[in-house]
Fold this protein.
Amino acid sequence: MRPFEYLEPETLDEALALLAEDPDDTLVLAGGTSLVILMKQELVRPARVIGLRKLAQLRAIRSGDAGLTIGALATHGSLARASDVNAFSPALAATFAAVATVRIREQATVGGNIVHADPSQDPPVTLLALDATAVAMSKARARRIPFDELFVDVFETSLEPDELLLRVELPALPVGARATYKKFLPNTLDDYATVAVAAVVATDADGRCTHARIALGGAGPVPLRAHDAERSLVGRRLDDRSITEAAALAAAATDPIADLRGSARYKRAMAGVWTERALREIA
Ligand SMILES: Cc1cc2nc3c(=O)[nH]c(=O)nc-3n(C[C@H](O)[C@H](O)[C@H](O)COP(=O)(O)OP(=O)(O)OC[C@H]3O[C@@H](n4cnc5c(N)ncnc54)[C@H](O)[C@@H]3O)c2cc1C
């Protein structure tokens, strides 16, 4: 590992100022579960590492009429247990509980997970389906990035090197919405998903769909939305026909990467199967 300078700011302003001094040769460290592996393998070789653990305000989890706000330094474990998260969406709490093992969940943060941008991770899929927005800040500016625009490629987000992810904001769910998260784990329970599906569907008093979001993980270089599948559901009841049509459209929206977890063809087929299961559960 390349020797590096370790800095631990006490305040957010101090952290942003340190990052602004040399953004291209500095990386921030949250839980360290991804970054330390990348540094040991010399896939990244920062001259300076900024530890964020003293920035307690970035751990806050808050809910209100406008929705739910999750601080970037909240760990997956704390989010899985948080009553505010469970009250907002049990599917979101279940998503955090589905990350890795207890050891990783108690150390790794949602912010580190999002910025690491491995397309097989769990939280980005459900956050995308819940219309999440990332709030980022540099010394010079703050900006809001909808999740649809956040993930650029495998291990790449649209965050600039001088920006810190501060929090994720989730709007209140539409009236009558139900959500689910399905992680397909054919190998071991602590694995990354072979494919994963998050679905959020609201229906009116007549049972007709008024809102549909279907997001897929492990199904392309970034977490994806199945827009055609979503559109196909709106105005219809969730029945055998609408569900199988939407599942086929979701599979068609994928662009999976073949790896040890399966061929691209297999993952595409599984994306359809698990979308169908998610929609049947919601129905
Ligand atoms: C054995 C193992 C199993 C795993 N299994 C799963 C799984 O099943 N599902 C899943 O979803 N994930 C899984 N993961 C990934 C894990 O969730 C991520 O490693 C973790 O969430 C990253 O968070 P961290 O706090 O450790 O980030 P770090 O390792 O500290 O940082 C990761 C990256 O994010 C950047 N970063 C961190 N915080 C910020 C911030 N606030 N602003 C800007 N940049 C930031 C860092 O500079 C670095 O580039 C697994 C990881 C391991 C090691």
User: Anything to note?
Assistant: Residues 264-282 form the longest helix (19 residues). The mean pLDDT is 97. Residues 27-35, 72, 99-100, 104, 108-109, 111-113, 115-116, 121-123, 164-165, 192 surround flavin-adenine dinucleotide (CB under 6 Å).
